[in-house]
Amino acid sequence: MRIYELAKKYGVDSKKLLEICEKVGIKDKNSLSGLKEEEALKIENYIKESKEKGNLQKRAPVVTIMGHVDHGKTTILDAIRKSRITAKEYGQITQKIGAYKVTLPQGSIVFIDTPGHEAFTAMRARGAKVTDIVVLVVAADEGVKPQTLEAIDHAKSANVPIIVAINKIDKPNINPEKIKKDLSEYGLVPEEWGGDTIYVNVSGLTGQGLDELLEMILLLGEMMELKADPNKPAKGTIIESQLHKSKGPLLTVLVQEGTLHLGDIFVAGETWGKVRAMVDDWGKRIEKAEPSTPVEILGSNEVVPPGTKFEVVSSEKEAKEICERIKEEKKKAVSTVKKLTLEDLYRELKKGEIKELKIVLKTDYIGSIEAIRNAIEKIPTEEVKISFIHSATGPITESDILLASASNGIVIGFNVPLAPKAEEVAKREGVEVKIYRVIYELVDEIKRAIEGMLEPEEKENILGQAVVKKVFKFSKKLVVAGCLVVDGKVVRDSNVRIIRDGKVIFEGILTSLKRFKDPVKEVSSNTECGIAIENFTDFKEGDIIQSYTIVKVPRKLK
Ligand code: GDP
Predict the structure, then answer these.
(1) What's the CA-to-centroid distance between 72 and ligand 1, angstroms?
(2) Contacts of 307 (CB under 8 A, 6+ apart)
(3) Which of 68, 70, 78, 179 to mutate to test the pocket of ligand 1 (most atoms within 8 A of CB)?
(4) Could you say which DSSP state residue 56 is in?
(5) pLDDT tens, position by position, 394-417
(6) Which class would CATH give 62-228?
(7) What CATH number has the domain spanning 353-453?
(8) Which residue is closest in CA terms to ligand 1's atom 19?
């Protein structure tokens, strides 16, 4: 194709097109020479991409509030929610739909209504990235607490920047400077000390400092250049859902890309629906929702959990097909989505799929954390970087498991139990939890995992047993035991052991299995059969032949 033809096709002049040629690395072209197919493709892609970029528009930052219990997260969320009700709107009731939007002259901000890192990480474990900025609330009178640190680790492993709100600034005898100093040790160095963390003193109770907090969120959002293309079919994430008594399933969607319209057909996880009605966080009916807008929609066939992806599709037919496909795939996949385990670490390393082993570490004493980290950091390895995404004392909790799940990491416990429910969540999420009592064992196992020396645990699966009723000697080498299968089944080529008087006298392979004269694959209970075993001829009436297989199972939670 000639350059001028291409220029015409895309509505750019030849001069512009020559500039593009330069940018994509096509040299020495003039308007008369022809273009190779791949060159034309490069140019087309460039034009398409820059058009898409051109459609990108600024969007509001989405904020999650985190922090230790009782430090004032809910109070701040509510205070900001109330502050947006202007005199004109006074008396209007806001609707709790899971998130709300504050609109200021300088811009808007979306606040997720469920504070805390648990909900944040649970969504992330489903693969949803919703939050752009975390506001970490620290009560000035209490300072840095375990959940403050936990929240920092959860935000960091999601790569989400943190603004610190020192709350309860109205209280007497407080020392915000000490909080800054303490948090600096965890990498949150204030701007005035040469770091890049924004700190704001606030009071959720009196409202002091909240305007400044909102300004800082907008400022950071501005710096992050948060953008989305509103001219596309909508995509987003479910942040809340409920089954309403009369309305049916209600989903709150945070639109993250494109614009959601009334009447749109969508897929959300394994379900689909049609947007029959939409309300915003004021409870007002709306017809469309642009990026960074939370809306509650009516018309889903089912409720789906928070964190589920949401996407508008072109037709009901397509929606049904996608859902069918997802359901099929889910059926095929064995029970849980398997996450990284120590056992397959080596294989993944070889495939080049991971370069970092992320560990959530829970120990009995603070001192053990340092000791373990030091010991593990001494493991000589170039293949993998070992990083501790969260280390703390105490039992392994649900939130530890979710953090590991969201980051495709593992959980290591040292002399600590699994909290109730955590084991169940670990199973559901497919997260490996290993508990050790001796540091040496822990270090050794990680070392062997990196070297690919960690074998999966082998477990015996007993298939069934047969009793020898009569022995047939055909030749010295060929002796067949006429048997009756008494429970389960015996299977050809399976492992067998011969038990005589309660003792195992031989272990081998079941090489021949016959019903009358015919070879068969397996024989089940209450059926007679002939069995021959490799390298064994010394059958006696009354011997028990146990048929079993060895299955490799991932090492169990210890
Ligand atoms: P959350 O667990 O972090 O959501 O904390 P809450 O918002 O429930 O607040 C815990 C307690 O601290 C409540 O009794 C609030 O009234 C109180 N509180 C919250 N913010 C402030 C504040 O700025 N000043 C004072 N004095 N008390 C506050």
Answers:
(1) 4
(2) 122, 123, 124, 125, 126, 127, 128, 237, 238, 239
(3) 70
(4) -
(5) 999 999 999 999 998 999 999 888
(6) alpha beta
(7) 3.40.50.10050
(8) 72
